[in-house]
Specification:
There is one protein chain. With about 525 residues, the chain is mainly beta. Helix content is about 10%, strand content about 45%. It has three domains: about 90 residues, no CATH class; about 130 residues, no CATH class; about 270 residues, Porin (Beta Barrel).
């Protein structure tokens, strides 16, 4: 049911300007759909106010057509509209997160024969051979150890967006090289060279599961998943280990960038497009040096608004020009405070608007469904169009409490923040996001803060809101990659509920390496 324009001037149930409209689409086979629509719009009555008027009106309220898939993901539609007009439509359908390019062959390892006992060979050579095979599969910081009955590989996964798939690939390599005396094979997942999680299983159990001789629910009960610390690893007896590899951890890439500035008086849709080369280096445990440089191809961002003196984000259009500029350059250090408690300290140019210092602490109670933490930033604003210079007339700071909850049935993460935001407003910010099987993450946020102290009416009483997307980088690559590209869209650029944009926080660093999240997709060990 619709009113006004959608009613066509009709009446329904005795109510004037209320009418019905609707359509139906019928799938007659895998490639062809028939479409029909009833549209009562009286175009001749509203042509003055619309950009593309139809002053003669519609000959018929019935529209119909056909839509067919001409190529994979490409639909062609032909329609007859308003009784006198032909319409043609070309529609591209792309599943977000799914790879656009065909991936290079990446077959998993298979066990064909049971190797000889370690006692019959040079155990050091065997462990080095296993380490090199795991490194060749795309994993970093690889170390292989054994205590005669357990064979363990310590890895850092920068290859697969699914940690379960990564662990499954390494377990297959361990299974392939496990002699008869090995009773357990284990994988320790690390991040920034900090051990987080250990997954252990018997070779016999894994072999039966891979070969399809064991149900997934039974296999899940026989896999042991536990958090682990470096201290507990050092206490374990090791009879042999592979040689250490002293290599500098780094990764680099180029992110396609699309930034918007919406609903300004100068134009409803302003944007900047370009590329952002970036590099990350981790020279020691828990460390990360990050650099990114923005190279715009085109920008039409401008504004007739004069930002208020207390602007923290509403002057963001000044930072969206067409000149190349340093986007971020900072140092981030993560350290462990307990088995499931972590701290983070950061300093540098965090984003295009702010530079300074930041810190965070967080703990993951129980198996990691919940996370509780506290974060704060002390920053100064960067000068637009200048690579390194800062404004020194004002300091900004935030102090925020964080609560996370993972709703496993929908793979949904809920986040609540309370505290003081960049604009000195105090209140709540809520966020919900969902992760899909392709690795895509979609989410939205909404804030409730005290806005009475702001100087402009646009900020007073406003609730900051928007949507965001984290797009898997592997979508555009010939090989699988773990990291994602983040994009945000907000209907207005206001100063309410604003925070410093850190590329990563402790929840992002550690949540997917907690037992509860690993158990969500444990079936992917078979992939």
């Amino acid at each position: 049911m619709g009113t006004d324009r959608l009613s066509g001037g009709n009446s329904l149930f005795g109510v004037e300007n209320l009418g019905m409209f609707g359509g139906v689409e019928v799938n007659i086979n895998e490639k062809i759909n028939l479409i029909a629509e009833y549209s009562p719009i009286a175009y001749e009555k509203d042509y003055i106010s619309f950009r593309y008027p139809v002053p003669e009106g519609a000959v018929s309220p019935i529209n119909f057509g056909v839509r067919a898939e001409v190529l994979r993901g490409i639909d062609l539609g032909i329609s007859w509209q308003r009784g006198n007009t032909i319409g043609v439509m070309l529609h591209g359908n792309l599943k977000l997160g799914k790879s656009i390019l065909p991936k290079k062959p990446n077959p998993p390892a298979w066990r064909t024969v049971i190797p000889q006992s370690f006692s019959e060979k040079d155990i050091q050579d065997e462990l080095n051979k296993i380490k090199n095979e795991i490194k060749g599969a795309g994993f970093d910081n690889v170390k292989v150890t054994t205590d005669v009955k357990r064979l363990t590989a310590e890895i850092q996964n920068e290859r697969y967006i699914s940690n379960q798939k990564a662990v499954g690939r390494v377990l297959r390599i361990l299974l392939k090289n496990s002699p008869p005396e090995i009773e357990r094979i284990s994988v320790v997942l690390t991040r920034r060279k900090i051990p987080f999680l250990r997954i252990s299983v018997s070779p016999h159990t894994l072999d039966k599961f891979i070969m399809g001789e064991m149900r997934a629910d039974i296999f899940e009960q026989l896999v042991h998943i536990e958090t682990i610390t470096e201290k507990s690893i050092k206490k374990e007896i090791v009879s042999a280990k592979s040689e250490a590899t002293n290599s500098l951890d780094y990764r680099w890439g180029v992110k396609p960038e699309f930034e918007t500035f919406l609903n300004d008086l100068s134009g409803a849709f302003r944007y900047r497009i370009g590329i952002k080369p970036y590099a990350t280096i981790s020279p020691w445990k828990g460390s990360e040096f990050v650099a990114a440089y923005m190279i715009p191809f085109y920008s039409n961002v401008t504004s007739v608004n004069v930002p208020p003196p207390d602007a923290v984000r509403s002057d963001g259009w000044k930072y969206l020009g067409d000149e190349p500029a340093l986007d971020r350059l900072y140092y981030d250090q993560t350290f462990r405070l307990g088995e499931k408690s972590f701290g983070r300290f950061s300093t540098g140019y965090f984003e295009k608007q702010y530079a300074g210092f930041g810190g965070e602490v967080m703990t993951f109670p129980s198996k990691g469904s919940f996370a509780v933490g506290l974060e704060g930033d002390w920053v100064r604003k960067r000068k637009p169009g200048n690579t390194m210079e800062l404004f020194n007339d004002r300091d900004y700071y935030t102090l925020l409490g964080n609560l996370y909850y993972r709703f496993r049935p929908l793979k949904m993460t809920l986040r609540a923040q309370y505290g003081r935001f960049l604009g000195e407003d105090v209140g709540w910010r809520f966020e919900a996001s969902r992760e899909y099987d392709t690795g895509l993450v979609l989410g939205a946020w909404y804030s409730f803060t005290d806005t009475d102290h702001f100087l402009t009416q646009e900020n007073q009483g406003y609730n900051d809101k928007g949507i965001f997307m984290k797009l898997p980088a592997q979508m555009f690559s010939l090989r699988e990659k773990r990291h994602r590209y983040s994009y945000r869209l907000s209907p207005w650029t206001r100063d309410v509920g604003a925070t410093v944009a850190h590329p990563s926080n402790l929840y992002d660093i550690g949540s997917d390496l907690m037992p509860v999240l690993f158990e969500e997709d444990i079936k992917k060990l078979k992939n």
